[in-house]
């Protein structure tokens, strides 16, 4: 054997260069955003004309918000998520200030004061993501005391309850419920004691019942929901029109741009009801395509959380992706009549600056977690042996562990 052949035989293979971000997550998000722009273009012409603007006015604004969101997402993907530990307190103070400003300025749109700057900014949308960031840091710092009611559940309930109270005063029942659900989800993922979690759920259920029976908006929406479940023809005007759009779409839809319910009175076809337009124009086929994309998004959130280098990264990854998927689930459930009418946007697809920018910011943070995971990944610790429980086996009665995400190496 020649010297050159001997050297080649003993030469070590060149190390594989790893990509610094999660490619499947990027593909899923890009697909959702592009599809969303297509649907906003189709669904927003009538809405633009109703405010005496050019037919493409809403679409153009959405395109601008997407560009801003992409810049924010890119910046967040390069910003080390550990630095949020120093920023979350200031961030929550700013969010609370914006929520308070909404009540003071009282800019009423669609029978509620929920926005600033002529509807361009909805602080409740920012509050949803902010509560996840704050609780991720807060819970990560209190792993040792989560089982203690006074140091775990009680202060968490005060934090979440204060944010929800500001939002429900607008009033925005769906956003306040989302904040409460996110608080429960984060406490669960962090390893909170199951008895305390059950206590939270009972309290949340009681609060929900109170909102339904006391608040006029809640009573009306729940009554319409019950009537619609008994007989779709007796449901609210909004839900009757969404049913009409879904039925017209059948399996393959009437074709992009050919839906007529968006021109004949479907409420908010480019925002809250955009999934009805999707169902009419692309049918069951296109609707399931969107649903599958969100299921894949949840899967990527789990994978990134599983491989995250620390507990904070795990909480941020699954918490942020779980929030986005929860918003999508609630929006779709409303359109098909499985949930009382709510104001949740369909992430990446509904027109709206606050929703688009905050969801893309959340994706950027998750991307940074995946980048940090790639940096810390070694041959001895690959994605196949990085373990995270994500509460999968923690349903038995036990004292809360210090860190239920800890690797079992």
Features of the shown structure:
409 residues, mainly alpha, disordered C terminus
Explain the overall architecture.
With 409 residues, the protein is mainly α. The protein has one domain (22-372). Helices cover 63% and strands 1% of the residues. It has 14 helices and two strands; from the N terminus they run αααααββααααααααα. The protein has helices at 3-10, 23-43, 45-50, 57-78, 88-105, 123-140, 153-168, 173-189, 194-214, 216-230, 237-249, 274-307, 311-335, 353-376; strands spanning 108-109, 112-113. The two termini are 43 Å apart. The model is unreliable at 11-17, 378-388 and 393-409 (pLDDT under 50).
Structural class: mainly alpha
Distance between the termini: 43 Å
Beta-strand proportion: under 5%
Weakly predicted, low-confidence segments: 11-17, 378-388, 393-409
Number of domains: 1
pLDDT averaged over residues: 80
**Number of distinct beta strands:** 2
Order of SSEs, N→C? HHHHHEEHHHHHHHHH
- Give the count of helical stretches: 14
**Main β-sheet, in a few words?**
2 strands, antiparallel
Rg from Cα: 23 Å
Shape: globular
Order of strands side by side in the largest beta sheet? 1-2
DSSP helix fraction: 55-70%
Question: Secondary-structure map with pairings?
Answer:
Elements: H1 3-10, H2 23-43, H3 45-50, H4 57-78, H5 88-105, E1 108-109, E2 112-113, H6 123-140, H7 153-168, H8 173-189, H9 194-214, H10 216-230, H11 237-249, H12 274-307, H13 311-335, H14 353-376
Antiparallel strand pairs: 1-2
